Amino acid sequence: MQTLMAMLLLAVMLIVTACGDQEGQTEVKPDPSPAETEKVQADEVEVIAPHEGLNQAPIPLIVERISENEVNVEMTAQITDIEIAKGEMYKAWTFNGEAPGPVVVVNEGDIINFTLKNLDPAIPHSMDFHAVHAAPSEKFIDIMPNEEGTFTYPANKPGVFMYHCGTKPVLSHIANGMHGVIIVKPKDGYPTDSEIDKEFVLIQNEWYKYNDLDDMMNGEPSQVVFSAKALQEGDLNTNGTTYSLQETPLLAKVGDKVRIYVNNVGPNEVSSFHVVGTIFDNVYIDGNPANHMEGLQTVMLPASGGAVVEFTVTEEGSYPIVTHQFNHATKGAVAILKVTADGLDDGSEVMSH
Question: Considering only CA atoms, which of 333, 263, 332, 260 is closest in space to residue 303?
């Protein structure tokens, strides 16, 4: 009898336990994939309220030469959506709706009359030209929303200089897209001017989490990219994307001597600028003819550092242009120079890195 009672008690306990397990059962879901996690993070991004839905059409740069040694330059601070990777938009703080901004070209010895118009409805912006002598407290000052300011300064040194917004916190303004290059052409030119067949402007920059100052200070860039900026009307002109200069390569023909004006606008990382398949015949550090070097394989560019590099392409094919810090090249800092017999795109597939 005792044995029977024990067996019945055990059976009841098993039934109760099973029911309890079933009632308390929790579905175990797999960890989200990196793509799903990235989408959730993107969905959680909060745009500054006055920028919500704002996508201002790019306003063209204005450069007007008014005398042999004086030039008017007008730029616009604005909020414009930029595609930084396939399907990934960034609500960039920009100069003239581009990130990096348009290249500005003046001559050594010019007086620059510079006007900045600020179309950002919420945030002040400013301009810091590395190419000029000026008191920052007087001539790099903030321009309030929907206002403009004009400043005058000399450009007395030739080179490839960075420009950027200098409003606090400076890192936020640069990393959100307010950066670019001003070229001051040397009054006597470069010694190799007569030898150059092709000229390009390339800018390297980094992207971080949207408007996240902590990530910009302490994190790693999500993308590191090259952009081409037009020297002449009709030249290739791209924003800071991971794909543009791989899908649409720069072009040259066999035997061309190529000059690249290059600047690493950062804001944080160093660039080890290298063109695969060639050696630099001439390098002018910071673009100054006085800083001449020959036979370099790689040019080290600190954040804001520039250079003019020249090289000759001797065979047909694809020549990847990279930062030789390959964690950054893998994040997108690759451009392609396609070399063909006639300098035209033959439609062939390009080699990348």
Answer: 263
pLDDT digits (tens, 9 = 90+) for 148-186: 999 999 999 999 999 999 999 999 999 999 999 999 999
Q: Report the alpha-carbon distance of residue 165 to residue 216 in Å, rounded.
A: 16
Beta bridge mates, 317? 339
Distance of CA 302 to the CA centre of its chain: 14
d(CA 262, CA 250): 14
Return d(Cα 249, Cα 247) in angstroms, integer: 6
Provide the 10 A C-beta neighbour count for residue 218. Answer: 9
Chain centroid, CA 237 distance in Å = 13
Q: Using the 8-state DSSP alphabet, how is residue 51 labeled?
A: G
Please measure the distance between the N-terminal and C-terminal CA atoms of the chain and give it in whole angstroms: 82
Contact 343, 256 (CB under 8 A): yes
Nearest CA among 71, 187, 180 for reference residue 129: 180
| Strand residues in the chain grouped as ranges (E) | 62-67, 70-85, 88-95, 104-107, 110-118, 128-129, 148-155, 159-164, 179-185, 198-207, 223-229, 250-253, 257-266, 271-275, 280-285, 292-296, 299-301, 306-312, 317-323, 334-340
Residue with tokens 């950054």: 328
Torsion sign over Cα 31, 32, 38, 40: negative
User: How confident is the model over 225-248, as pLDDT tens digits?
Assistant: 999 999 999 999 999 999 999 999
Cis peptide before 100 (omega within 30 of 0): yes
* Contacts of residue 33, Cβ cutoff 8 Å, sequence gap at least 6: none
